[in-house]
Design brief:
mainly alpha; two-stranded parallel sheet; 9 helices
Length: 191
C-alpha cells in the first residue's frame, strides 16, 4: 500500500507523523488545550519541536494538566522543583514564564469570556488557509502573528514572539500550512 502524502517535516520521526496526522492544523477551541499549546510553543523556543513532543506527557504531569488556575498560584518552591524535573526543559525563564502566562491567560479569560474567543479574533474567527506547494513557501511569521505577539506582550505574556505565535497558530489550526498535496489539507481531512 502506498503511504499517504504528508508534509515532509512529519516524516523524520514517528511522533512527528502522529502529531501531523492528528493535531497540526486542526482548529482548537478548548481553552485548556490552547493554553497547553501556548506554553509548549514557548518552551520550544530555541529547540526542536520533537524535543517538546517527547516531553509533552511529562509537561502535562509537571504542570497539573495545564490548569491555568493552579499554575498561576505556583509558589517559588514549585518553580524550584520544576527546575529539577528532567522530564521538562529546565530553563528558569521558561518555567517562570509559564506561571506569568497562566496569570495573563486568566485575565484574558475574564475579559473576553474565554481565551478561545480572544485568540481567534486575530484570524477573523476562521482558519487562514495557505497554499504552499513546498515547505519553503511556509512563512515563519505573518501580519496576524505579529499582531497577536504584540497584543499578548502588552497583556503580560512572555515567550510569545511573532515566530512562536505563528507556530502556535499553526499548531491550533488558526493557520493551515499543510502543503497542497498533503492528505491533511483542510478540505481533505480525515476525522
Amino acid at each position: 500500500m502506498k503511504p499517504l502524502p504528508r508534509c515532509p517535516w512529519s516524516l523524520s520521526d514517528p511522533l512527528y507523523t502522529v502529531y501531523h496526522d492528528r493535531e497540526w492544523g486542526v482548529p482548537v477551541h478548548d481553552d485548556r488545550k490552547l493554553f497547553e499549546m501556548l506554553i509548549l510553543e514557548g518552551a520550544q523556543a530555541g529547540l526542536s519541536w520533537i524535543i517538546i513532543l517527547k516531553k509533552r506527557d511529562a509537561y502535562r504531569k509537571a504542570f497539573d494538566s495545564f490548569d491555568a488556575r493552579k499554575i498561576s498560584q505556583y509558589p517559588r518552591g514549585k518553580v524550584k522543583a520544576l527546575l529539577k524535573n528532567p522530564g521538562i526543559v529546565r530553563n528558569r525563564l521558561k518555567i517562570v514564564a509559564a506561571v506569568t502566562n497562566a496569570k495573563a491567560f486568566l485575565a484574558v479569560q475574564k475579559e473576553f469570556g474565554s481565551f478561545d474567543h480572544y485568540i481567534w479574533q486575530f484570524v477573523g474567527g476562521k482558519p487562514i488557509i495557505n497554499h504552499p506547494k513546498s515547505m519553503k513557501q511556509v512563512p515563519v511569521t505573518s501580519p496576524e502573528s505579529d499582531a497577536l505577539s504584540k497584543d499578548l506582550k502588552k497583556r503580560g505574556f512572555r515567550f510569545v514572539g511573532s515566530t512562536i505565535c505563528y507556530a502556535f497558530m499553526q499548531a491550533v489550526g488558526m493557520v493551515d500550512d499543510h502543503v497542497t498535496w498533503c492528505f491533511r489539507r483542510a478540505h481533505k481531512r480525515l476525522r
